[in-house]
């Protein structure tokens, strides 16, 4: 998986280098703090703990106030799994951590974002709203890697300087959805019908990005 991270970063960096003569590309370096979330299953629940999230993105302005971006972010975290009800005929009480000592994991987000900046491009501070969708690659010690649908929304302000570097302060909400089994329903015509059961994470975070504008 580490080789995969290197390839993603190298790909984005190569695009940035090739775009140095362009008037519309920015290279963004991300850092942020992502808060925890609880995910409930039928007989257990998991927590995706707080963690530092970091990444890189290449942003292209399709007009003065709007851009699209391809980015990669990684959240290194712990994912403890707890029982909600007693298991094994009561030998494992509720609230027991089932993966103690083996709960380290990570979520890798690969997203395509759209961002709209409010105001004139000549302003030093530009508020913005954005949203994106893509995939999340979940790393867990026991079950390996899985790829799931992911999305995010974000809001913040971009602060320009007199140099090619600008600072981007933002808040974000990220989500990842995964199928974890089946729920069964009775249909009068078909009989028992299995329907995929999905769970989702919803993690709020606060971040900062340093942007380098190749047009300056």
From TrEMBL:
<feature type="signal peptide">
    <location>
        <begin position="1"/>
        <end position="19"/>
    </location>
</feature>
<dbReference type="InterPro" id="IPR011250">
    <property type="entry name" value="OMP/PagP_B-barrel"/>
</dbReference>
<feature type="domain" description="Outer membrane protein beta-barrel">
    <location>
        <begin position="11"/>
        <end position="207"/>
    </location>
</feature>
<protein>
    <submittedName>
        <fullName>Outer membrane beta-barrel protein</fullName>
    </submittedName>
</protein>
<keyword id="KW-0732">Signal</keyword>
<dbReference type="Pfam" id="PF13505">
    <property type="entry name" value="OMP_b-brl"/>
</dbReference>
<dbReference type="InterPro" id="IPR027385">
    <property type="entry name" value="Beta-barrel_OMP"/>
</dbReference>
């Amino acid at each position: 998986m580490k080789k995969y991270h290197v390839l993603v970063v190298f790909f984005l960096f190569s695009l940035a280098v090739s775009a140095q003569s362009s008037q519309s590309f920015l290279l963004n370096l991300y850092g942020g703090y992502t808060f925890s979330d609880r995910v409930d299953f039928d007989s257990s629940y998991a927590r995706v703990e707080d963690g530092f999230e970091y990444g890189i993105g290449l942003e292209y302005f399709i007009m003065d106030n709007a851009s699209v971006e391809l980015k990669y972010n990684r959240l290194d975290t712990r994912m403890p799994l707890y029982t909600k009800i007693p298991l094994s005929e009561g030998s494992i009480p509720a609230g027991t951590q089932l993966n103690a000592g083996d709960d380290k994991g990570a979520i890798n987000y690969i997203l395509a974002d759209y961002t709209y900046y409010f105001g004139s491009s000549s302003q030093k501070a530009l508020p913005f709203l954005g949203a994106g969708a893509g995939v999340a690659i979940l790393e867990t010690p026991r079950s390996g890697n899985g790829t799931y649908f992911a999305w995010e929304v974000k809001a913040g302000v971009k602060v320009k300087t007199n140099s090619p570097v600008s600072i981007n302060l933002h808040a974000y909400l990220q989500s990842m959805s995964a199928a974890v089994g089946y729920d069964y329903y009775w249909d009068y015509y078909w009989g028992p019908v299995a329907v995929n059961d999905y769970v989702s994470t919803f993690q709020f975070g606060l971040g900062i990005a340093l942007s380098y504008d190749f047009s300056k």
